[in-house]
Amino acid sequence: MDPLETRRSRPAKSNVQLPLRETASQTAGPYVHIGCLPNMAGIKGVFDQDLTSYGSRKSGDTIKIRGHVIDGDGQICRDMMLEFWQSRNGGKGLWQRYATDLETGLYEVEIEFPSEMRDVEGNEISPFIAVWIVARGINIGLSTRIYLSEPDNDKQFSLIDEKRRHTLIAKPLELAGEYQFDIHLQGGQETVFFDI
Amino acid sequence: MSRAIRGFSPRQYDGQPEMNYPDYRSTVLRHPKHRLVAVPQTLADVTGPAFGDMALGELDSDLIVNYASPGQSAIGERIIVHGRVVDEASRPVQHALIEVWQANAGGRYRHKNDSYLAPLDPNFGGCGRCVTDEDGHYQFRTIRPGPYPWPNGGNDWRPAHIHFSIFGSGFAQRLITQMYFEGDPHIHICPIAQSINDARAVDQLTARLDMANSVPMDLRSFRFDLVLRGPGSTMFENKLEGN
Question: Where does this protein have coiled-coil stretches (chain B) (predicted)?
């Protein structure tokens, strides 16, 4: 047997060891758009269209939520990517993703009014929209939730410091069905982020 | 009737990066200062979008040619990147969508905010995607990206890396990470890689040269396996039945 021959053709050992541990997160970086929204980033012709949604909205039942992501200096972040997931009990859920506008930092999502939600024990809890935020400077994607009104006697909400709960409630705007939800990464208004 | 859905085991943070890591300057104003609030998982965390039957383009997983003019190909070291996606219980994560993006061979991204001196490659876009098979296996072709300098307050250079975005079976498994290359001396002096204070976890982000899967006279292969969060307790949909 030729030892050089075996070395030349040797299969790699895995980069993963036992016991298996979740692969570490790393920042999505400033160029996340290239991989997740290439057409928006100006890379045309690779994918027919950007992957921005899964599932479909029920017609006539939608709301609009818009806002900014704000850093610890009070600056609007223009390089965020946000994903919104709304599960449906017993059915196909609705997922959407948006980048904040590269010039204005605004995001705007058109989404279905949340219906029912259950926790892991099967208890009915207040419905919310799950949000996941990644960008340069965010080493692990941040999870938060949007509620459209203050939940009443809710098992999950009661785990949150009373003074911070308001950061999870979208503010209704003048037009019916339109809401504002700003995400503060730090500061006095810091949004509640979850370890789920 | 109820449908059982598995939750996920709690996330172990000791193999994860620090959210506040001042050597990586951008984290300073972008990390939450409050502790994350632990809440029990819900239907919204254990379910997620399923992209397994998505119709992918023929060249979606071939970054060497998916932006190139007919008959042309991207400049750089031609490579295959492949591996398996499993969960912490070794179960394959099937039909999972993986999106990748990277700089070109000179270390330049095709992005309006990247103004590095290295030129764009007219035949390289830098994005691709694929879906894992029944065994959790995935594969794509690309060129090895170059290292590049970045504004972080000093003379910082990123190790060559490929960004990965993975959708597991539930939204709480969602992961974005970066793959590095075995033997790259920049890994150990990179503030982004070193924001993970765990040598084993950094090593787990490092793809291995895999000669057995190379194509002689054409491409070398690198193996990069990924692990998503493992199963936790079971929950039931449509029925008040806990565990």
Answer: none
The pLDDT value given to residue A62: 86
Name residue B198's amino acid. D
Neighbours of A108 (CB within 10 A): 12
CB-CB under 8 Å, A137 with B227: no
Q: What is the residue type of A93?
A: G
* Domains of chain A, each with CATH number or no CATH: 21-184 (2.60.130.10)
Contact yes or no for B125 and A43 at CB 8 A: yes
Nearest C-alpha of chain B: how many angstroms from A178?
23
pLDDT tens digits, A157-194: 999 999 999 999 999 999 999 999 999 999 999 999 99
Mind listing the pLDDT tens digit for each residue in B80-95?
Answer: 999 999 999 999 999 9
Asked if A109 and A84 count as a contact pair (C-beta separation under 8 A), the reply is: yes
Q: What is the pTM of this model?
A: 0.95
Decide if A184 touches B, using CB distance below 8 A: no
Domain ranges of chain B: 26-227
Please write the tens of the pLDDT for every residue from B164-184: 999 999 999 999 999 999 999
> CATH second-level architecture of B26-227?
Sandwich (2.60)
* Interchain CB contact of A47 with B (< 8 Å): yes
